[in-house]
Design goal:
By secondary structure, the chain is mostly helical. It has one domain: Ammonium transporter fold (Orthogonal Bundle). The protein is built from 17 helices and no strands. Helix 7 packs antiparallel against helix 14.
Length: 487
């Protein structure tokens, strides 16, 4: 560049402004750097600074509380979204004439559960009381800002998270009762499940001072995210309901030359299953109730994924020699069984343990479905096997595969010795106490509802189609349905 050109550009006012701004910014940046070196930077450079007496920083505490509460709420939203998965899964496995009934039951169960858990369910389960039942915070009154025992999770966020769990237990129950349950009867038993059975039995382990959480002989029962509290309980309630209801009209079981009717829409069922898998990332990792526990969240999420993957493959492989087909329905229920099984030990096992217990959960689901079929119990969705039997296995597996690194003794098969054996039997005993109690109380509840003649829809209503009889409209092809064609 020649000198005349340089002089002319230096006289340009816009270029002069740019030059001043540019150089001014550089000087300010240098001043900040030197200020850092001479001030706070001394901490990094190793120079002596005056010691300050340690004291609580309200700003840090508020930030931790906000982060953990936000994480808990996000997890609650994921668990709540599982209702969409349940609705699609159950609708897909059902017959066309009962799809609306499935959807309506799931929606209304959710509405009921929200109000019941607010009124007294949460108080029974998570309120201070005794070893059997809580009796504080009815209608969420007089609750503290932070739920006790959590790392800054707000009381209301904790309530919402636990409501989503309670709703899941109620929805599991309906899966085994599809196609023949009267809607009034569904309302009645749902009040019993969401308002009383789930919260009271859940208090035994998860509530303050629950008797199953008491240490005996150096061990106590553990259930990180609910293989027992949510899934075993839900499966046993579903079993009681299916037994009291009896099978759908025309249902012919395998030992009588029939078999479980196929679902009407496996596309919907498969998408519902994957939505449930996605929601499980709120169910299990969210049960940390702490975003600060980032290593725990990562471990739980990974274990959840590996167990589900292993279970889906082993379930599919288990039935292939029998059918010579790659069965979609059993693959879906297989990975769901793996998710159920890992729910209890997800925090306490490593990746290898998660794969092993998941690989076993797949055949457990298949054999559970076979067993229920052999007993001539009509379970259209496989809820008893997936949630009940896989939930039992998952609870037991903690006592076998725990690594001993995260506050729980080493598992019996992981080198835990006598302590591991004690832990295993604590898992078995606690699971039996809750599962057995849930079945007995639910059986009595279902029998009581049956006495009102509302539990089962009439024979005429079932033959007509429960969607039209109970709700006035079918899910598909309304013209054909109202004319009695093809539905």
């Amino acid at each position: 560049m020649d000198v005349p050109t340089l002089k002319s550009r230096l006289k340009d006012k816009d270029r002069q402004k740019f030059f001043v701004t540019f150089m001014g910014g550089k000087l300010i940046a240098l001043a900040v750097v030197f200020g850092f070196i001479l001030g706070p930077g001394k901490l990094i450079l190793g120079e002596t600074v005056h010691a300050i007496a340690p004291q609580a920083d309200p700003t840090v505490t508020d930030a931790v509380n906000a982060v953990n509460t936000s994480w808990t709420l996000v997890a609650a939203f994921l668990v709540f979204f599982m209702q969409a998965g349940f609705m699609m899964l159950e609708a897909g496995f059902a017959r066309t004439r009962e799809v609306v009934n499935v959807l309506q039951e799931c929606i209304v169960d959710t509405c009921l559960c929200a109000l019941l858990f607010w009124a007294f369910g949460f108080a029974f389960m998570f309120g201070p009381g005794n070893g059997i039942i809580g009796h504080t915070w009815f209608f969420l009154n007089a609750g503290p800002a932070i739920y006790p025992g959590t790392q800054g999770v707000s009381f209301m966020a904790f309530f919402l998270f636990q409501f989503a769990f309670a709703d899941t237990c109620s929805t599991i129950t309906s899966g085994a009762m599809v196609g023949r349950t009267g809607f009034k009867g569904d309302l009645l038993y749902s009040i019993g499940v969401s308002g009383f059975i789930y919260p009271i039995l859940g208090h035994w382990l998860w509530g303050p001072g629950g008797w199953l959480a008491t240490v005996r002989s150096g061990v106590r029962m553990w259930d990180f995210a609910g293989s027992t509290i949510v899934h075993t309980m839900g499966g046993m309630i579903a079993l009681a309901g299916a037994i009291v209801l009896g099978p759908r009209l025309g249902r012919k079981f395998k030992r009588d030359g029939g078999g479980l009717p196929p679902g009407h829409d496996m596309t919907v069922a498969a998408i519902g299953g994957v939505i449930l898998w996605f929601g499980w990332y709120g169910f299990n990792p969210g049960s940390t109730l702490s975003a600060i526990d980032f290593t725990g969240i990562g471990r739980v999420a990974t274990n959840t994924t590996l167990a589900a993957g292993a279970a889906g493959l082993t379930a599919m492989a288990w039935v292939y020699p029998r059918l010579r087909k790659w069965d979609m329905g059993i693959t879906i229920n297989g990975f769901l069984g793996g998710l159920v099984a890992i729910t209890c030990p997800c925090y306490y096992v490593n990746a290898t343990g998660a794969i092993i217990l998941g690989a076993i959960a797949g055949p457990v689901v298949v054999l559970g479905i076979d067993f229920i079929e052999w007993l001539r119990i009509d379970d259209p969705i496989g809820a008893v096997a997936v949630h009940g039997f896989a939930g039992i296995w998952g609870t037991w597996s903690l006592g076998l595969f725990s690594t001993g690194q995260f506050g729980v003794p080493k598992g019996w098969l992981w080198g835990g010795g006598s302590t591991g054996a004690k832990q295993f039997f604590a898992q078995v005993w606690g699971n039996a106490a809750i599962g057995g109690s849930a079945f007995i109380v639910a059986y009595l509840l279902m029998r009581a509802v049956k006495l009102t003649k509302t539990l089962r829809v009439s024979e005429e209503g079932e033959l007509e189609g429960i969607d039209i009889h109970e709700h006035g409209a079918p899910a598909y092809h309304p013209e054909a349905a109202y004319m009695g064609k093809g539905i």
